[in-house]
Amino acid sequence: MMTRLKDVIESLIFVSLEPLNLEKIKSICTEFSNGEIEDAIQELVASYASNERGIQIIQAAGGYLFSTKSEYDQWIRRLLRLDQKSKLSRAALETLATVAYHQPVTLAEISAFRGVDATYSLKTLLQKKLVKITGRKKSPGRPLIYRTSDKFLTYFGLNNITDLPSEEEIIKILDEERLDD
Amino acid sequence: MEEARDYQVNLEVFQGPLDLLLFLIRKKKIDIHDIPIATITKEYLAYLSQKEKINLEREGEFLLIAALLIYIKSQMLLPREIEPDDGDDPRQILVDRLLDFQKIKAASTLLREKEDQQTKIWKRSVPLPTPTTEEMEVVEVSLFELAEAFLSLMKKKEQENVRLIHGKEYSLEEKMKELIERLQEHGYLDFCEYFNAQESIEEALISFFCLLELIKARIVMAIQESLFHTIKVWPTQEAQP
Prior knowledge:
heterodimer; A: alpha+beta; Arc Repressor Mutant, subunit A; 3-stranded antiparallel beta sheet; 5 strands; about 50% helix; B: about 240 residues; mainly alpha; 4 strands; elongated
């Protein structure tokens, strides 16, 4: 029987709990050329997106992974006995946005940007592993340096840190708000 | 009752003094680049005086901004010998901070939209988000408990009553490297096992110092699955690439 590359890749993504990146797939499927692999992935992703299926393959944090489709959320929550998936608090979200746009950043810098002490919300974000410590700044007190983590990307469905809402999108939001006032 | 609720609402609405300031500027439909400091200060102080008691710890930051507003006004009122350049508007510091803050707020609105979309999508990697998972029972060990475990191990070692004559000197750096390599290889390290395997008290001591250093730098963490269980040392998530 002929090995179908598409099926191979499908099985690889299936067993991976973390997003599986292209380089990894290439290093495993050595029998196939890069072009073949890329085509097969495209085909696979498309087949999940269009067919009558409850799951799909999404790209997050630089890799591919299976997820459910958003339409079926309410039934999944019934299965898991959850009314609502918990979301980040406003303070945590603003702190996270500060880290995301100003990284690498220290606690003092985050607090200055927000005008309030960010110790508590930063701790929450560390616990949720959305933010990570990447070292210490070579300045007095050697403060810790924070960056967003890969889990941050997966959490917001971003493939890459450059997928963050751009300056233009932010300005657009600000303009809309001004019109609302 | 009523008052208490008002207060809570205020806390909900304003995430800090910059947030309040931005709200006032919008309310008065003022251009952020051209803030009439006196008007806005009056509004700002009015808000602060609404509260009968000022909680210094929480409101300190609000007062700081109030002081900054008044300082800026005074700078603008005082005549100067040399006319400042256009770029020297004392309001500029505040405007810059507000602009940065406004951007962060807008960015978090966008992130919230993404979060909303993503919470409807379920991934296999997400552990079932029930409030009481076994993981929650894992206790991060305090320094005290760690030291206690170490001392009891040391006592055991002394009782072995083996005398070894060694010329070897141990360096913190070498030991630290060894510890990290072991962690990378095995994923975790059993505290008791590891120290029992140490050849001498000196070596065990050095290893313990290393462990403390690594915990302090948040490269590893010491975890006990439950009370009286063995202590395990794991690399922290943050330290992983």
